[in-house]
Amino acid sequence: MNAWNTIKLPARQHTPFAVLKNLLRREIAEHKGMIVKTPIVIGVVCAVLMLLGLIGGAIAGNQLFELSQEARNAQTMTPEVAAGVFQQISGHYAYIGTILALVMPIMVFVYCVHTLYDERRTRSDLFWKSLPVGDTHVIASKALTALVVIPAVYTAVFVVLAYATMACFAIVAAFLGWNVAPVLLSWGVLAPLSVLAVLPVYALWALPAVGYLLWVSAFAKSKPLLVALLIPLGLVAAVGVIDAFPHTNMSFAYDLVGRVLYSVVPFSWGEFNSANPLSAWTSVASPQMIAGVVLGGALLYATVRIRQKQDDQTL
User: Fold this and answer.
1) Under a CB-based contact definition with an 8 Å cutoff, are residues 66 and 178 in contact?
2) CB 170 within 8 A of CB 225
3) Which residues of the chain have pLDDT under 50?
4) Which of 8, 39, 100, 116 lies in disulfide reach of 157, CB 3.0 to 4.6 Å?
């Protein structure tokens, strides 16, 4: 008997959690440029430009902070002055966060709308169907990649660059004869980490958009991006016709249809208060959030059913 036929893999390698973990690793490996390299490159470029601006300003003799002279002349820095100084420091790394927050939804959108379509186009879905991997696990891994992995990577890049920004400010300010370490230690130690509190909120809020885009990617025969844009536009037009009748109010329908596109944008559920990041959780119990979660779950279920019924035909 062939020795290879007697080898049995440990049972834990076949558990749903282990299968899902391996599928997530596969998604990250196949889309490393989009998930990992892109935010790192954007962050590094922004950080270098900001550092060059700080160094150039210091060499030119410009004031690093608007409140620097006031703070330097004070015997003890008042809480108001310290808060103003840190607000100026945090404003610089907030620019980096804004750029990352604008790029991330584009990456999520492109990833979701092409991932299942590309597998059918390249016939790689036939390989995965030949393995003991359920379609539910495959769709779940792609949804988690869009809802958790990509936001987590972009957030991690932002947090690292935020602390790097504060360190650069402290070094440049030291050359100007002002120690900003007390301000950073008292005000800025945990400030960049506040965005971590809203990651679960983002996952729930973006669920309908991710479910919709994966659903389109599962059945689109060609040009999935165009299909993903035309369907909501058609629904909006239909809702507009109904809304034209007297005594009708379709504002909730407009919002729900729009959610399948714009909810991948961070903080689109409302304003973000870095001083109290947990305030974002107040939107979790809102009707818009609950309806979106139900819609997203239904679309993911429909995506699984479509993948299960697909035959061996290619596009």
Assistant:
1) no
2) no
3) 1-9, 11, 73-75, 312-314
4) 39
**pLDDT score at 82:** 63
Q: What is the DSSP string of the chain?
A: --GGGG----GGGGSHHHHHHHHHHHHHHHTHIIIIIHHHHHHHHHHHHHHHHHHHHHHTT--SSTTHHHHHHSSS--HHHHHHHHHHHHHHHHHHHHHHHHHHHHHHHHHHHHHHHHHHHTTHHHHHHTTT--HHHHHHHHHHIIIIIHHHHHHHHHHHHHHHHHHHHHHHHHHTT---HHHHHHHSSSGGGGGGGGHHHHHHHTHHHHHHHHHHHHH-SS-HHHHHHHHHHHHHHHHHHHHTSTT---HHHHHHHHHHHHTTSTTTTS---TTSGGGGGGGTTSHHHHHHHHHHHHHHHHHHHHHHH--S---
